[in-house]
Structures are given as structure tokens and as C-alpha cells.
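Table S2 (text version). Query chain:
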Amino acid sequence: MDTLSRERPTFLYWVRAWFPVLIGIVVIATESTEYFGADHTTGPLRWLWEHVFGAVSNGRWDLIHHYIRKSGHFTGYGLVALAWLRAFWMSFPRLSFSQDALLALLGTALMASADEIHQTFLPNRTGMARDVVLDCVGAIMMQLAFFAFLKLSSRNWLERPI
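Corresponding C-alpha cell output:
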């Protein structure tokens, strides 16, 4: 959309801007159900782990499983933050990258908070503030990595016509 100041964005433009955020929300909401609690993911993840890396003791598996799940928080919310960042970048062309990133972090933090609050009502899940912090750290790190990638690969991408 090079002619933003001259043309109004089409409906398809807004769908392209915000559909990845909607997909991220749906994925997070799905993973926030009781079917994705630790008691339901341990079996499939352990099977996969042991087929790739070999057998592991129960005590060791509990720790590995914990780290796999927390890595999922970090990575998943990092990717969701990039979807928010892209949507804000496309929606508000006069904002700076850092303003878009801050809005993306806010959207991610609200999503993470809602997710953890929702989990407090499920019998096999727990809502924890430290997971919201982990999610936000993942969002910040992914945005910083993306910003570094942009700076190293193409300075023109960050410059938008006004």
C-alpha cells in the first residue's frame, strides 16, 4: 500500500493485516483448553522425545516436559507478537517501529493475561502470572530479533511512505 495517503485500504487489505492475529488468538485459545494441559501432553510429547533422543527416566522426563511447555509459551507468544506487530505496522503507517512494537507487546500481554485467567477456571490447568511474564519476554525477544534482522537485511523496509 504505497499510496496510503491517497487511497483508502480495501477490505481485503484489512483481512491480510489482521488475519494472522486472529489465527494466533485461535491457536492460543485452543491450546488453553483442558485438552492441552500437562496431563494430556506428557504422553505424546514423551513418545516423540523418546523416539528422537531415546528413553528417559520419569524424574528427568518431568523436567524435560516442563521446559518443552515453557518453551512453547516463549516461542508461541513471540510469534503472536510478530503477528500483532505486522497488523499494527499495516494499520498505522505513521507510527514508528518502536510504537508498533509497543502496541504489539500490549496486545500480546492482554492475550497472555486473558489466557492465564481462563486457565484458572479449568480443573487441570493453572493460571500463573509468571507465565504472562514469560510470554511477554518471548514477545520482546522475538520483536528484537526481527528488528535486528530488518536492520541487517534492509533499511528501506522500516521506512514507510507518508
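Notes on Table S2: The helical segments are 11-31, 38-53, 58-91, 97-119, 129-153. The CA atoms of residues 40 and 160 lie 46 Å apart.
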